[in-house]
Amino acid sequence: MTFATVVLQPRSRGWVRLADADPLSMPRINPNFIDDEHDLKIGIAAVKAVRKVMEQRSLAEVIEEEFVPGAKVQKDEEIGVFVKQVATTMWHPVGTCRMGREDDPAAVVDARLKVKGIDALHVIDASIMPQIISGNTNAPTQALARHASKMLVARYFSEMLD
């Protein structure tokens, strides 16, 4: 039997950077999982909660042993080491081109979805979300794209009339 836990709204922040000036070079990526103490506490609490579920009589009768992190791992510090070792994404990273105010140094994209400092380049996907939602990112990304398409068409025709 496999249990998995997830920190749905992590506070830890990673980064994506250009490796060099070559546009074909792979970017440098550091997801920085469980870098925030709050995320670590959630991960530790999640492991403890799974263990309580596994101790219920109906499951305890069929579970022979805990493989990972293992029954010997009991202290919060030990569980924390395990949590940091296995932390991963749920395949929906967001925020790599964060949208924000003009004065936000962490924002890459402005409120009009334009990349700051570059004319005629817009980003319209989950990468502009400043924080991840608690569910799948597909529907909000589609809603964003629908809104953005209307905004871009309106801007295009407005500029044509000027």
Brief summary of the model shown:
It comes from Sphingobium yanoikuyae. InterPro entries: FAD/NAD-bd_sf, GMC_OxRdtase, GMC_OxRtase_C. By secondary structure, this protein is mainly alpha-helical.
Which terms would index this structure?
4 helices; 2 domains; Cholesterol Oxidase, domain 2; flavin adenine dinucleotide binding; GMC_OxRdtase; 162 residues; elongated; Glucose-methanol-choline oxidoreductase; GMC_OxRtase_C; oxidoreductase activity, acting on CH-OH group of donors
The overall number of domains is 2
Helix content: 25-40%
Give the low-pLDDT segments: none
CATH domain class name of the largest domain: Alpha Beta
How many strand units? 2
Q: β content, as a range?
A: under 5%
End-to-end distance: 64 Å
CATH topology of the largest domain: Cholesterol Oxidase, domain 2
Q: Average pLDDT value?
A: 93
Query: Could you give the order of strands across the largest sheet?
Result: 1-2
Q: What's the helix-strand series? A: EEHHHH
Protein name: Glucose-methanol-choline oxidoreductase
Organism: Sphingobium yanoikuyae
GO molecular function: flavin adenine dinucleotide binding; oxidoreductase activity, acting on CH-OH group of donors
Family: Belongs to the GMC oxidoreductase family.
Describe this structure in words.
This protein has a two-stranded antiparallel sheet. The mean pLDDT is 93. Helix content is 35%, strand content 4%. It is mostly helical and 162 residues long. Helix 1 crosses helix 3. The chain has two domains: 15-86, Cholesterol Oxidase, domain 2 (2-Layer Sandwich), CATH 3.30.410; 92-162, no CATH class. GO terms for molecular function: flavin adenine dinucleotide binding; oxidoreductase activity, acting on CH-OH group of donors. This is Glucose-methanol-choline oxidoreductase. Belongs to the GMC oxidoreductase family.
